């Protein structure tokens, strides 16, 4: 084998046993250990087993093997363990104060080593066997490991033939290593449990609505982000620029969903820093030129991340408060994980052309007893991501859009994606904190997933696409801005009187009647830059068990483009599902355009002309497209 030739012919003096190599470490040393699944297990066990080693400090980002020893008195007396991220096997030890956690942005850790802010005497790493030129590969752990070995006074490497050989900035020459310990052993595997349940399915559904074909994705590490990936399998030409590659990506690679063709930075390549998962994903990245492994100061640098157009960052959290503050590294005073890459990618995505970030989390914890959307973060909880950094928050109850929104708007956005049983209490707390109006109505206390079936889109002749969906309480400011944008003539045609103000109180009266069944409002949204404007609202309201009164208002620049006709069709379908048989409309005589919309769809409508108005009764059985509806489907 190539590596045996190198060890025999070029570096005999470096080829030592683990005991011999570890004996070179002095007591009181600061020791860096390679990350996560790439950690040198044999070297770690040898280090801990050497009872002569005293008062050593160990630095590691993500640790597994040390969990075997962290609860023993001997280990705690001889080693101080400092972690940049608390892995699940070490979480309980962290809760018990046996681990020292270092909060740090992942992109900045390498500079801490190079500047000697954190000095390193010895680095323990694991590499693949050398090639014929003497180059080993850091394999699945480049991240902060490269900086760790480059800034250590002494480097001890475990050469493991089972370590994948990866492309990118992963290569280390034998000359950079002081001691070589050949020890084959299986690479650490780590598969976060997947919960393919209704909650993850619904969260995945909402995430997929925001991700477009050709987007470049960052996916955080953990159970939920890993599960979300499977709901993106209908997308095309996705790209990847992320900290960690996991088994969750494999189906998207195999289905050719991830092609990286449309990336603006390093097209054709998956950019990553480490890999954690099963032997299957390790075999997939082994010597695969599609993967470009770089160190954390590159992969996680927000300015580098921003060079990816349409970069979508997807990560999770422990709780989010009503103002948008995110806690992801602690449960109260108990440190749970770490800051990791979340802030780096949130800020990078915000600078990306067309990019944005998503925080995805279940609405509850502890079996549904605790809300993850909270009025304020738990006592002791850390703010990993500030309220100024968040774009979207997604739970199984929908999408909350926070970017550019006021505290009032954020409260309403987040309250409506909280679990229904906690919404009233959240709104009461928000009133107490003076975040919202004292008379603010809470979101509906029911699961509104059925509203997803009422979302649709219309492509008009100009090529522009208008999206339609049911109106929500968080749309108050947008709907008020819409009415204020209308000309007096348009307002008079809709309300039959002049209206100069459209106040918060008026909106509250509207919400009091909207139940999404017997009373419904659909809005039309047009994308304008990085946000969407309301350009139309269609509403029906209960008259009696079989009749609903219908009305529309469309912004002037979108009139005569088929918007009202489309809204009429959409509302008819919803009305039929809710057992209505007819629509009733009252139209001003001079409003010829709206009369045409109604009579074109309902040629047999009953028309009654009055002094200044026309009353139209429209039976659904006479609709020109009645055959397209399937009530109760």
What do these coordinates show?
There is one protein chain. This protein has 633 residues and is of the alpha/beta class. The chain folds into 3 domains: 2-182, Glutaconate Coenzyme A-transferase; 198-432, 3-Layer(aba) Sandwich (Glutaconate Coenzyme A-transferase), CATH 3.40.1080.20; 453-628, Gcn5-related N-acetyltransferase (GNAT) (Aminopeptidase, 3-Layer(aba) Sandwich). The chain contains 21 helices and 34 strands. Helix 20 crosses helix 21. The longest helix is centred in the C-terminal third of the chain and has 15 residues, at 563-577. It is elongated.
- Give the tally of structural domains: 3
| Shape, principal axes of CA atoms | elongated
Mean pLDDT reading: 90
- Order of adjacent strands in the largest pleated sheet: 27-28-29-30-31-32-34-33
Based on CA atoms alone, the radius of gyration comes out at 30 Å
Total helical elements: 21
CATH topology (fold) name of the largest domain: Glutaconate Coenzyme A-transferase
CATH class descriptor of the largest domain:
Alpha Beta
Low-confidence stretches: 626-633
């Amino acid at each position: 084998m190539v590596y045996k030739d190198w060890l025999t012919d070029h570096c005999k003096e470096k080829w030592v046993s683990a005991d011999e190599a570890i004996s070179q470490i002095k007591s009181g040393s600061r020791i860096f250990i390679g990350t996560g699944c790439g950690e040198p297990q044999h070297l770690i066990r040898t280090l801990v087993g050497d009872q002569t080693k005293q008062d050593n400090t160990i630095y590691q980002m993500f640790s597994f093997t040390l969990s075997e020893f962290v609860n023993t008195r001997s280990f705690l007396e001889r080693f101080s363990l400092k972690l940049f991220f608390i892995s699940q096997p070490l979480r309980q030890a962290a809760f018990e104060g046996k681990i020292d956690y270092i909060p740090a942005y992942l992109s900045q850790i390498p500079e801490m080593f190079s500047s000697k802010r954190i000095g390193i005497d010895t680095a323990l790493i694991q590499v693949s066997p050398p090639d014929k030129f003497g180059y080993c590969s850091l394999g699945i752990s480049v991240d902060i490991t490269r900086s760790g070995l480059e800034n250590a006074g002494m480097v001890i490497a475990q050469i493991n033939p089972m370590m994948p050989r990866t492309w990118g900035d992963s290569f280390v020459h034998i000359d950079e290593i002081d001691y070589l310990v050949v020890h084959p052993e299986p690479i650490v595997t780590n598969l976060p449990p997947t919960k393919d349940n209704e909650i993850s399915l619904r969260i995945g559904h909402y995430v997929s609505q925001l991700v477009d074909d050709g987007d470049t994705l960052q996916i955080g590490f953990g159970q939920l982000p890993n599960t979300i990936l499977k709901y993106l399998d209908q997308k095309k030409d996705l790209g990847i620029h992320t900290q960690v590659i996991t088994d969750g990506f494999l189906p998207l690679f195999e289905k050719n969903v991830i092609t990286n063709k449309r990336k603006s930075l390093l097209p054709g390549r998956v950019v990553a820093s480490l890999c954690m998962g099963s032997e299957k994903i390790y075999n997939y990245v082994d010597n695969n030129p599609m993967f470009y492994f770089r160190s954390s100061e590159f992969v996680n640098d927000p300015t580098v991340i921003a060079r990816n157009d349409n970069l979508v960052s997807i990560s999770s959290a422990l709780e989010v408060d009503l103002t948008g503050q995110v806690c992801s590294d602690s449960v109260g005073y108990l440190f749970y994980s770490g800051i990791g890459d979340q802030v780096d990618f949130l800020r990078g995505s915000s600078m990306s052309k067309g990019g944005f970030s998503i925080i995805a989390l279940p609405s509850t914890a502890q079996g549904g007893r605790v809300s993850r959307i909270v009025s304020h973060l738990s006592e002791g909880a850390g703010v990993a991501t500030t309220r100024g950094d968040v774009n979207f928050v997604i739970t199984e109850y929908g999408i909350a859009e926070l970017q550019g929104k006021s505290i009032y708007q954020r409260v309403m956005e987040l309250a409506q994606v909280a679990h229904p049983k906690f919404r009233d209490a959240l709104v009461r707390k928000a009133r107490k904190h003076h975040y919202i109006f004292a008379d603010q109505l809470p979101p509906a206390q029911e699961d509104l997933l059925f509203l997803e079936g009422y979302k649709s889109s219309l492509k008009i002749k100009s090529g522009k696409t208008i999206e339609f969906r049911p109106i929500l309480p968080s749309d108050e400011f947008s709907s008020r801005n819409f009415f204020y944008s209308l000309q007096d003539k348009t307002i008079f045609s809709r309300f039959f009187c002049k209206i100069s103000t459209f106040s918060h109180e008026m909106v509250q009266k509207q919400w009091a009647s909207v139940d999404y069944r017997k009373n419904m409002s659909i809005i039309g949204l047009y994308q304008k830059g990085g946000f969407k404007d309301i350009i139309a609202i269609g509403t029906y309201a209960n008259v009696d068990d079989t009749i609903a009164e219908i009305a529309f208002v469309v912004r002037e620049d979108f009139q005569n483009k088929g918007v009202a006709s489309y809204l009429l069709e959409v509302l008819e379908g919803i009305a039929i599902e809710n057992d209505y048989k007819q629509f009733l409309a009252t139209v001003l005589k001079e409003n010829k355009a709206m009369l045409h919309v109604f009579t074109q769809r309902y040629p047999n409508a009953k028309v009654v002309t009055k002094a200044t108005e026309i009353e139209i009764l429209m039976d659904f059985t006479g609709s020109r497209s009645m055959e397209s509806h399937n009530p109760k489907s």
